[in-house]
Batch of 2 targets.
Target 1
Amino acid sequence: MPRTAANLQAIRPPSRVARADRKQVPRARSTPPDEASLQTTTRRIAEAITAAIVERRLMPGTKLAEQKIADIFKVSRTIVRQALHQLSRDKLVTLEQARGARVAQPSVEEARQVFEVRHMLESAMIKRAASELTPDQIADLRTHLRDEQAAVQRTDVTGRTQLLADFHVVLARMLDNEALADILRELVSRSSLISLMYQSAHSAEHSFAEHVAIVDALEKRDARAAVKLMESHLLNVERNLRLNPRVPDLESVLSPEN
């Protein structure tokens, strides 16, 4: 698994408009950035790293060198350090005294716990959505599904990974509960990281089809069916993870006869 600094090229800061020729523009006196600006920059770096993890451009265990990231975003290491601490609180990055920051490598037990929480939250969320979503919101979900389908059909791995994950966050946001959306966004991000480590051959087409069935049930305001479909969907995602690896028998592995 590659863990060199070159992997950090996967972190893509938003493009910037080219600056005017410095010779033609009088140099303004520099002023310290205000607190709001620093927070915006910190959030931009954290979001870029999160997107790179979710979209499978940064693998578990990848070293996140502060100076390299600072160079990419043209900011100080202090700001990068703040972003990495934020991601550490979200369990997407691990910070160690001697080794620095790395993309987290979730344990099997952590993976089970994340999906257990998702089951509890999303079952309640989808039940409420079945009674509260408006026809316009259902139409917005259909648009999201069309985007999912297009990404799946053109084998856009990055795009489909992001869209399939976003489906769950979009549902939470439609209930006007930003706290729920934030929690679910963190859980979905951690699920994507878990998938990088433990997922077997997973069918994006199958996940898309399950999303369609969930929206169909929501449109019919069939809460019971919607909850059952969501629980089945999450179970299928979890089953595609190798959380119970076979422990080999030492004799069968090391015997000279093999």
Target 2
Amino acid sequence: MSNLRATGVALIAGVLVTTGATPAFAAAAAAPPRVTPGPCQYTETPDEPAARPVPLPPDPRHTPSRGTVDVDLKTNRGPIPLTLIRSKAPCTVQSFVHLVEHRFYDKTICHRLTAYPTLKVLQCGDPSGTGEGGPGYRFKDELPTDLKPAPTDPTGARKIYPRGTVAMANAGPDTNGSQFFLVYADSALRPNYSIFGAVDRAGLATLDRIAAGGVAPSPDDPTGVDGPPALTTKILKAKAHC
């Protein structure tokens, strides 16, 4: 990411296959990934298996696109209540609630904090804690079209993701999975990240405390502007109120 990428790569379990594999086994191994039949088309990623077991989300013909869903992220640093907005990104909200209800986010760390002048976010959603894990499926972008231009970018390509935004991290077009980011100060990004909710006031106070702790310097980033939060942040439990 300078760009909020989520590689979606997890450890792949090896499979021992005898040299005399049957044609039926070979055909099964070559089977295409499963895709849900509804408009969201959640698609299995066999080469990027789930960091924590979870089924594909439901995908009804009429994906809920009205109203909001409240989600409480209980963290060791304080509460982070979220309001998810179905009209902005119905497939994204549906997937996020599905992962919450399957306890995918429980007992996971927020693995990345950025403190660049124009990018200030906390990134979470990977049970492996590496920034490479996902749910074993991907789904399409639902990109914003109403963001204001970033005054720091004279080309107009970057837009303002305002403080309090909840958006999906990704590894390129239509590669959304489980990783998401919370914007604690206005940030300038290309509008390539699906926005699906907002952080409530209590959550912003928690984010401010985490951000004030700074970034833990690492060999990859000795400057301390992009890396794990110095105040280790763990989602203890996520709960949706549908």
